[in-house]
Amino acid sequence: MLAGLREVLDPAVDAGTGVGAFNIICLEHAEAVIWGAEAADVPVVLQVSENAVLYHRSLEPILIATVALARNADVPAVVHLDHVTDPDLVRAGVELGATSVMFDGSRRSYEENVAVTADVVRYCHARNVQVEAELGEVGGKDGVHSSTARTRPDDATAFVDDTEVDALAVAVGSSHAMTERTTKLDLELVGRLRDAVDVPLVLHGSSGVPDDELVRAISAGLTKINIGTHLNATLTRGVRHQLEDQPRLVDPRKYLGPARDDVATEVERLLRLLSKAT
Ligand code: G3H
Ligand code: ZN
């Protein structure tokens, strides 16, 4: 069933567990994420990024399909717009049924980020949609890896108070689009951020973070765990194996289907890990 962001994050905060949030690029991702969540029997977040929308050249088909899959799911499923920098895209996504939005003003000045994010929050809250925002830019979105950015707890307190966001993405040592799972997080900072703000904290760039470090990060106070690249690697590895084994294949269902099953299995495994972490 289609769920709101805080509906799935608040119980996890209370339980000291995590919620997996997976990036959706194509229909097979969305199906695999729902199937994995149903197998693990836990809530999940499906997130469609502004970059995925640019890839499709349109928001409607991928978002409407994702909303339909979430509505039909046996578990609570949030449909979230990810890393949106254009407020017009927020409005379009909310009209199409997204229940949650990450507005990314992290490349703006602090003052501008506060002003634009607060506007987005007013628009979304009037429509019962929740908003995540980012403070302290998590690097790697442009292919340049930097894990040195840090969110200052005092800034986080002020930002949440000034914008009234429902969840906060923080920079604590991760970087986007990592293909090696070698990241060490600043867990001491996670604890101080947890004490400084009263909304759930979000980890971006979680593909580079090994399983045991994800568990420690949740114990330290992170709740929403965003994973994109790792699932892409799983899907692509599956397709590659199928095509290498059967070079004469032409029906995409024959190589996408098994790769989609691999993604569902990995989503199930990750959700079991995140939802049991304490
Ligand atoms: O917003 C999306 C996430 O931060 C995913 O990052 O592709 O590095 O796992 P990742
Ligand atoms: Zn991200």
UniProtKB/TrEMBL annotation:
InterPro entries named in the record: Aldolase_TIM, Class_II_FBP_aldolase, FBA_II
Cofactor entry: Zn(2+)
Domain of life: Bacteria
Pfam families per the UniProt record, alphabetical: F_bP_aldolase
SUPFAM superfamilies from the UniProt entry: Aldolase
Name the UniProt record assigns to this protein: Class II fructose-bisphosphate aldolase
